[in-house]
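Aggregate trends can hide what the representation actually does to any particular protein. The sequence in question and its structure tokens are set out directly beneath this paragraph.
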Amino acid sequence: MTNKHIGSSFDDFLEEEGILAEANAVAIKRVVAWQIQQKIEHEHLSKTKMAQLMKTSRSGLDRLLDPSNTSVTLHTLDNAAKALGKKLKLELI
């Protein structure tokens, strides 16, 4: 009885299950949401103030900070970065 997954990577497993892209999107969103939340806390910004700086609603900010919501636009991410004095950098690897 051999295990076909011995020696394969976790990414290989996710690819075989057809969920690699979704898992990557959720992981990236969680990291981005966490980084933004950390910067908000470090700057002592309220959600209302952050939303104003981003030129969006508080519910828009809540969607951005929701780690499971992967449907955030690049425009929203860029606005968040600018509001925090940062730049958004995307890279294909």
Remarks:
- Residues 10-83 form a domain with the 434 Repressor (Amino-terminal Domain) fold (CATH 1.10.260).
- The radius of gyration is 17 Å.
- The CA atoms of residues 47 and 62 lie 8 Å apart.
- The chain has a mean pLDDT of 88.
